[in-house]
Amino acid sequence: PPVVWYLASFALSGAVIASSLLVWQLLLPAMQLPLAAAVIVALGLAPLLWMEQGMSATQLAIGLLRVFGITQLYFVWHLLFAGLAPPATETSSALLAWVIVIFCFLYVAQIWLLLKPQSQLTRALFPWAYYGFYLDESFTRFTFRFWPAKLSPEQAQTRVNR
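-> structure tokens emitted (162 positions)
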């Protein structure tokens, strides 16, 4: 699909989420969803509208139904667990804008990977992205530096730890 379709799928996903939220707010006026959460959910569900198999009305309808269904599940989940979570505190607008920009960047990067799979940048970044930028290794080393594992002599002699 053309690049415009990837951006339009984000807009369609956002429209489904916004209209669903309006209906939910009519039924439950206390139902609120922060703008940053709505944008993140729209970006997360937009790939359900990508048409790699061809652009047809049936594929679009199926994608929209998927986005609608997952959105309803998200709102039910939000409603069920809103009472368990502490009330949200005010967050700075700059921080929310930063989070939205980062998620938009990740969405554009995902589109780049789809459109340019053989580019030099994609080939260089793919192994790093595939392995989570090796963050688990960094966190493991950091943790063991300050909180080393203390094994008993029996544990140290197992086949796994030799």
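The two ends are 52 Å apart (CA to CA).
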